[in-house]
Amino acid sequence: MKPDITEIRKDREINLLIEKGNEVLRELGYTEHSRKHAAKAAETAGMILKELGYKKRTIELAKIAGYMHDIGNSVNRHDHAHSGAILAYGILKERNMDLEQILTVTAAIGHHDEGTGTAIDPISAALILADKTDVRRDRVRTKEKANFDKHDRVNYAVTNATVKLNLEKKVITLNLQVDEEICSMCEYFEIFLGRMLMCRRASELLGMKFKLTANGRKVL
């Protein structure tokens, strides 16, 4: 069924929206939200549902939602999940996607932000987990450490982040390697507690528990 993730990733309009949003967030001082983040979200969302045994098209829809989830930043950071969902509806309708599948993708995009959203189905749950676990040093755009804000410091402190599923124990784990000289775990939670609680809800919807480890220690 069309479109698939390969077509979505090559789509000029979608890519222009992602890059425009990334430019907007650069000016506002936010971390990287480029096609790299979009691709990472798509890959992780697909991986989660694949490992959990979901059907091929469901996995594909999660990847599409993952790739398109931040296009609303091209309009405004505020309410970007909602504007992104509306943009995605029009784009996917023009690409002749099945209407029910469009609504599934747009609902996932519209619910991915912790300010207004929550997991409502497996695709939205996979998107939330994929988006909120993409914490990494190379998302920081500020070059001088002295100019880091707290979000820059938290992201820069994470030298490695992996998402693993243990099907036997029914656990989804975000494993972080954190340079605690740059950022304490207390500071990490100050910034990301809302996101981690959102991941816990998303995991529960998928029939799993959510676990966070940092430097080999269980944190959540």
Give the neighbour order of strands across the main sheet. 1-2-3-4
Computed Rg:
17 Å
Residue-averaged pLDDT: 94
User: Which range best describes the helical content: under 10%, 10-25%, 25-40%, 40-55%, 55-70% or over 70%?
Assistant: 40-55%
Number of DSSP strand runs: 4
Element pattern in H and E: HHHHHHHHEEHEE
- Assembly context of the chains: single chain
- Output the structural class: alpha+beta
Q: Low-confidence stretches at least 5 residues in length (pLDDT < 50)? A: none
Number of discrete helical segments:
9
State the major sheet. Answer: 4 strands, mixed
Task: List the topology elements.
Elements: H1 5-10, H2 12-28, H3 35-51, H4 56-68, H5 80-94, H6 99-110, H7 122-132, H8 150-157, E1 158-166, E2 171-178, H9 185-205, E3 209-214, E4 217-218
